[in-house]
Specification:
The protein has 19 helices and 25 strands. The protein is an alpha/beta fold. The protein folds into three domains: about 240 residues, Glutamine Phosphoribosylpyrophosphate, subunit 1, domain 1; about 200 residues, Rossmann fold (3-Layer(aba) Sandwich); about 140 residues, Rossmann fold (3-Layer(aba) Sandwich), CATH 3.40.50.10490. α9 links the parallel β16 and β17. It is globular and about 75 Å long. The relative contact order is 0.09. Bound molecules: fructose -6-phosphate (F6R). The site of fructose -6-phosphate (F6R) has 14 residues, from α9 and α17.
């Protein structure tokens, strides 16, 4: 959500445009850039829509050796040119970009800026006008005025600020929104994530909440929240930049769906030894084993992965497990057992809703583990333990390979804890073999993707609404399948526990309404068949996705045989492919669905 790139000491325009393109996945609806050539010329350019609109507005003469760029995902004020960043003060001396939300901007505006003329409807503009106010009225230098503003602000921010009277400096600050400082030879870069500027440097400093810094081309001065000067160590980011490229694919989403068998194999070798025994930090395994209840938190797709995890932890460890939306738990904290353990599922590691729960957990000394795909992300740094999902960069807004990676890591962890607790079912569960079968089965489904495109074209593309139904683990996948289809194709889709339709929602079934039925649960397979007949007799067009042992002649997609616990790895793949092909065949931008952001850093 919002992307930021700033550079000092190097031709800035192309570098920022490239960086912003790499941050497109975070979601945005307008973009802007401020450039200063350090020879008395400056350029401020903004455009609504895609980055190419910004690029088209920039003339070849507009260049800079310092620049700050931004992609905006509208929160306060519509996506218009005036509301796009960078924002500036009345005298056009200070230019600022911001990722986050300033909660008390109206109070600050009323208290300090009653006479100021505002150009935008944003919360951000208050920050830059306030810097100017303190510089002019209190005769503070820019860095001091900036720090004074930060003390007054309540909310989340990653800020970059340029003062055109000392344009060879970028001032930055971070609180709850991601930002990294990249170190170059004769230049320095600031960006929302490392991947966006990996072509420039691999050496990065992680900034902490409360940090504020003054950066020039060959120096950086960082102060922490307490005002102390700090010297954090730089680290090398070891990501293959080609992993973040689309290659020959038209969309990242299909590339990422296709990568899933490889991700599962990678996780098998990363977290299982040659005998198939899980190899996690023993302190972590011991800590979880002491818990009398596990609490899983997540949002969207990660929340759905939590329902599969609940089944894994309960079956293999015997520890009762609850799943909650982070956004709900943050302010309606669950009633806790005596020895709770918290598990956060978050692909990005930056989701603001999940972070609220983690901060509350820290206050109460509840041990916490984050499962994330992003090393060094905020939720990873703030939890007691982290396990990486190792799915490789996920760029499409719709999460696919991070979901299946979350399933795999939860299953491996559940096995580790179950074995530690000497649970027979965990000891007997041959996870290495099951993960190998899962990867093989996923590959077979991917190889047969043409059939899913045919189904999507015939039954989904022209539909207004659709339903997913399933029981047990199939219900968990039904929730995820429904989210995937609606978010990328805009077909309103709901996931239901199969028996629940007849308690109200079946009234929505009309001639031709698509109902996608998932059947892998040995206990309830027959009952779900009954639910299929109920909707078919009311005109539904059923697409059945069924494990081979439960298949009948007319089933649409028959999944290779696996253990029930592993079945979601397979079932979810056709649901992802149906969503992908429905979106693509509607001519939509599959990777960047409207209104959505990849990294949701506001509550
Ligand atoms: C949907 C999707 C979102 C995210 C959710 C949480 O495809 O990607 O629902 O799962 O915004 O994000 P993370 O996992 O980064 O916490």
């Amino acid at each position: 959500m919002c992307g930021i790139v700033g550079v000092v000491g190097k031709p800035a325009k192309e570098l920022i445009l490239n960086g912003l393109r790499n941050l497109e996945y975070r979601g945005y609806d307008s973009a802007g850039m401020y450039l200063n050539d350090l020879a008395g010329h400056e350029y401020l350019t903004k455009a609504v829509g895609r980055i190419k609109n910004l690029e088209e507005k920039l003339t070849p003469d507009e260049q800079g050796l310092v620049g700050i760029g931004h992609t905006r995902w509208a929160t306060h004020g519509k996506p218009t040119v005036d509301n796009a960043h960078p924002h500036f003060d009345e005298t056009k001396r200070f230019f600022l970009v911001h990722n986050g939300v300033l909660e008390n901007y109206l109070d600050l505006k009323a208290k300090y800026l009653a006479d100021t003329t505002f150009k935008s409807d944003t919360d951000t503009e208050v920050a830059v006008q306030l810097v100017a106010k303190f510089v002019y009225t209190e005769h503070l230098d820019t860095f001091t005025a900036f720090k004074k503003v930060l003390k007054l602000i309540r909310g989340s921010y990653a800020f970059l600020l340029v003062d055109n009277t000392e344009p060879d400096h970028i001032f930055l600050a971070k609180n709850k929104s991601p930002m990294m400082l990249g170190l170059g030879d004769g230049f320095n870069i600031v960006a929302s994530d490392a991947i966006s500027v990996l072509d420039q440097t691999r050496k990065f400093i992680d900034l902490n909440d409360g940090d504020v810094a003054d950066v020039t081309k060959d120096s950086y001065h960082i102060e922490n929240a307490a005002g102390e000067v700090v010297h954090p160590a730089a680290h090398i980011v070891d990501i293959d930049p080609s992993a973040a490229s689309k290659g020959t694919y038209e969309f990242y989403m299909l590339k990422e769906i296709d990568e899933q068998p490889a991700v599962i194999r990678r996780l098998s070798s990363a977290y299982l030894d040659e005998n198939g025994q899980p190899k996690f930090d023993q302190k972590l395994v011991a800590a979880i084993s002491k818990a009398d209840r596990l609490y899983i938190f997540g949002a969207g797709t990660s929340y759905h992965a939590g329902f599969v995890g609940k089944e894994y932890f309960e079956k293999l460890t015997g520890i009762p497990t609850e799943v909650d939306y982070s956004s709900e738990a943050g302010y309606h904290f669950p009633m806790l057992s005596k020895h709770p353990f918290f598990i956060f599922l978050t692909q990005s590691g930056e989701t603001a809703d999940s972070r609220v729960v983690l901060q509350e957990a820290r206050k109460r000394n509840i041990p916490a583990l984050t499962l994330t795909n992003v090393q060094g992300s905020t939720l990873s740094r703030e939890a007691n333990y982290t396990i990486l999902l190792k799915a490789g960069p996920e760029i499409a807004v719709a999460s696919t390979k991070a979901y299946t990676a979350q399933l795999a890591v939860q299953l491996e962890l559940a096995k580790a804890i179950g074995c530690y607790l000497k649970q027979e079912v965990a000891i007997k569960f041959d996870l290495k073999k099951q993960l190998a079968l899962a990867a093989e089965g996923m590959q077979r489904i991917i190889d047969g993707k043409a059939q899913l495109e045919t189904l999507a074209k015939a039954d989904l593309v022209h539909s207004r609404n659709a339903f997913y139904i399933g029981r047990g683990l199939d219900y968990a996948v039904a929730l995820e399948g429904a989210l995937k289809l609606k978010e990328v194709s805009y077909i309103q889709t709901e996931g239901f526990a199969a028996a629940e339709l007849k308690h109200g929602t079946i009234s929505l079934i009309e001639q031709g309404t698509p109902v996608i039925a998932l059947i892998n649960d040995p206990v309830t397979a027959g009952l779900t068949r009954g639910n299929i007949r109920e909707v078919e007799s009311r005109g539904a067009k059923v697409i059945s996705i069924v494990g081979s042992e439960f298949a009948v002649d007319h089933d649409d997609i028959v999944l290779p045989a696996t253990d029930y616990l592993v079945s979601p790895f397979l079932t979810v793949v056709p649901t992802q492919l149906l969503a992908y092909y429905a979106s693509k065949n509607k001519g939509l931008d599959v990777d960047k669905p409207r209104n959505l952001a990849k990294s949701v850093t506001v509550e």
